[in-house]
Structures are given as structure tokens and as C-alpha cells.
Specification:
99 residues; alpha+beta; 3-stranded antiparallel β-sheet
């Protein structure tokens, strides 16, 4: 059976509006639609780098006690956590460049 969900722990964690820190989460494998749908979003059309925010919000199934990981949550991550999630995403989906 293929593993489709992967646990992770953010280096710093997401600090919500109430001061709660969320570090542990689960990311599922990406599907083709996860990469296609963001291309239709006006935020991506004006800034292609924003596709990362939307893709991550689609594939992270939960973060800490949050069941809904919206683009706003991803936007408010610390830079090191965003970088960690981008690498984690590439790794679990087999997108890492081979030397």
C-alpha cells in the first residue's frame, strides 16, 4: 500500500491570533489538480510565486489543532517554516532534484 500522508514538525511553528503555537501537522501527497487549480487564481496570475501558498494550503490536511489550513495561515508562517514545507513537499512528492 502506498503512503499518502506524512507527518511533519515545523522548525518554529505557526502562531495563531490567540497566541497558540502549532508545529505538528500532516501533508498528503499532491495530485495533479493541486498544481493546476492555483493557476486559475488571480493572485497567482499577478504573482506566480503565490502558487506555493495555495498548493501548500491544499495539501496540508491539518496543522496543530487547526483542521483548516487556509492560504492566510500559510501567508503568516515564519520564512524558515515556509522553506521547510516547500522542501518537505518536494521530497514526499518525489520532486527533489538529483545530483
Amino acid at each position: 500500500m502506498i503512503q499518502t500522508q506524512f507527518e511533519f514538525t515545523l522548525p518554529k511553528g505557526y502562531l495563531d491570533g490567540e497566541g497558540n503555537l502549532h508545529r505538528k501537522g500532516v501533508m498528503r501527497l499532491s495530485r495533479a489538480m493541486d498544481e493546476i487549480v492555483p493557476m486559475r487564481d488571480p493572485r497567482v496570475k499577478s504573482n506566480p510565486a503565490y502558487s506555493t501558498v495555495i498548493i501548500l494550503s491544499r495539501v496540508i490536511t491539518h496543522l496543530g489543532s487547526l483542521d483548516d489550513v487556509s492560504p492566510a495561515v500559510i501567508e503568516n508562517l515564519f520564512a524558515c517554516d515556509l522553506s521547510y514545507l516547500q522542501k518537505f513537499y518536494r521530497n514526499i512528492n518525489g520532486l527533489e532534484e538529483k545530483d
